[in-house]
Design brief:
The protein is α/β, with parallel strands linked by helices. 40% of the residues lie in helices and 13% in strands. It contains 18 helices and 13 strands. Helix 3 runs parallel beside helix 12 and helix 15 (347-357) crosses helix 17. The relative contact order is 0.13. The protein binds pyridoxal-5'-phosphate. The site of pyridoxal-5'-phosphate (PLP) has 14 residues, from helix 4.
Length: 445
């Protein structure tokens, strides 16, 4: 089935007990056991069933099956946020003394996890100079246990060469992990291009309505963990925390998600609330039609900004002269994402005047909502980075990131127009020159 259909039907037909058409919300903590023998069999993972909602829940399970189907993966695990998904995915393969290799264009909190949090746990993260596969491969060494990228960088807008990065990772017998939050599986399915593990912030386009934080880890089921027992002993050696279970023996190709659930989710507990799973499922039903509208509106907004002499530069991967254009054709079917960045004339000061004058477009640090949103990454999402790190992540002092929503595009453009006018009025004597495009992407790619 196609993505539009999977988004509505994967993982659920009619409720077997009540024949309900909508996915029921199982707002319960615990589940009854038939007997002590039944309880023991559940705890030994010998029979299917639920024990406790920190570990699994029927509403969450529908979400997991649905997102796995949409990403073309074998299995998925839902968790409390996109950051929890990322943390569990990398914790599942990394131990102290080992390292993860990452591209430099990252969401700010992901950068913080990689630059500060994981090193405190004895795990090094090596940042490549760019997202080019040859640059990434040049920092892989014998202690590397995974390669990481965002399929479309937030906010840089760079489109990763997933096939090239997967080939580089696989030459060194390690998996490629891809954060696919910005394009969603509607525009790009990294597993089809060789990625092994995908992480998602369901908070963004998939949920789509800005009501619920959530995340998911999706496993392709293709990485041959059992072929590399020295590199990934956690999958092929008995787990003392779980009665000596050997994940590859018990779960075969599904070992990755089983271990994420049994070790990370069970012990550290960033479980997705069933209510949020229910809300996210409502959003996912319409994600394909929403993404069409997001993409179309963003194209019109990018063209408007580019034509406007009050704008200094626009970075939008859908412009034919963008350095990302070829990758948009290859990986996104020619449909650039609805996240774009630009700089107003008069740099930081002009940007602040523009930002403060917005009315319809909201000043928030979120993306992927139905509503159009604006963010100033240097002072918010990417504030913890050094100036050099910001530059490599595609953030300059004046950069404004827009997440274009699904309102009528004329209303979005009218708001941007009045805010640009306010920015110019604030600097009436400012000289005007011809606009240019794509500056941050030239820095980062
Ligand atoms: C690309 C990307 N990945 C992950 C996250 C983290 O998601 P969450 O807020 O659900 O933890 C974000 C949040 O903005 C993001 O933009």
């Amino acid at each position: 089935m196609r993505i539009e259909t999977l988004a509505l039907h994967a993982g659920f037909d009619l409720d077997p007990t009540t024949r309900a058409l909508a996915v029921p919300l199982y707002q319960t903590v615990a589940y009854g056991f038939d007997s002590s023998e039944h309880a023991a069999a559940l705890f030994n993972l010998e029979v299917d069933g639920h024990r406790y909602s920190r570990i699994s829940n029927p509403t969450n399970n529908v979400l997991e099956v649905r997102i796995a189907a949409m990403e073309g993966g074998l299995q998925a695990l839902s968790v409390a946020s996109g950051q929890a998904a990322l943390h569990y995915a990398v914790s599942n393969i990394l131990r102290p003394g080992r390292n993860l290799v990452s591209v430099p264009q990252l969401y700010g909190t992901t950068h913080s996890m990689f630059a500060h949090y994981l090193p405190d746990l004895g795990i090094e993260v090596r940042f490549a100079d760019s997202d080019r596969p040859e640059d990434v491969e040049s920092v892989i060494d014998d202690n590397t246990r995974g390669v990481y990228c965002e399929s479309v960088g937030n906010p840089a807008g760079n489109v990763a060469d997933i096939a090239g990065l997967a080939a580089a990772a696989h030459r060194h017998h390690v998996p490629l992990i891809v954060d696919n939050t910005v394009p969603t599986p509607v525009l790009l399915r990294p597993i089809e291009h060789g990625a092994d593990i995908v992480v998602q912030s369901l908070t963004k386009f998939l949920g789509g309505h800005g009501t619920s934080i959530g995340g998911a880890i999706i496993d392709s089921g293709r990485f041959p963990w059992r072929d590399f027992p020295d590199r990934f002993p956690m999958f092929s050696e008995p787990d003392p925390s779980y009665q000596g279970l050997v994940y590859t023996e018990h779960f075969g190709d599904a070992a990755f998600i089983a271990r994420c659930r049994s070790v990370h989710l069970r012990t550290t507990g960033a479980a997705l609330s069933p209510f949020n799973a229910f809300m996210l499922l409502q959003g996912i039903e319409t994600v394909a039609v929403r993404v069409d509208r997001h993409v179309e509106n963003a194209r019109h907004v990018a063209e408007f900004l580019r034509r406007d002499p009050r704008v200094q530069w626009v970075s939008y991967a859908g412009f034919a002269d963008s350095p990302q254009y070829a990758m948009v054709q290859k990986y996104l079917g020619g449909r650039a994402c609805s996240l774009l960045t630009f700089g107003v004339r008069d740099g930081y000061a002009g940007g602040v005047r523009f930002y403060d004058a917005l009315k319809l477009v909201k000043r928030v640090v979120n993306l992927g909502d139905c509503k159009s949103l604006a963010c100033h990454p240097a002072s918010t999402t990417h504030r913890q980075m050094s100036a050099d790190e910001q530059k490599r992540a595609g953030v300059t002092q004046e950069t404004i990131r827009l997440s274009i929503g699904i309102e009528h595009v004329d209303d979005i453009i009218a708001d941007l127009d009045q805010a640009l006018e306010a920015a110019v009025d604030g600097a009436a004597s400012h000289p005007r020159a011809a606009p240019v495009s794509c500056t941050p992407l030239e820095i980062v790619s």
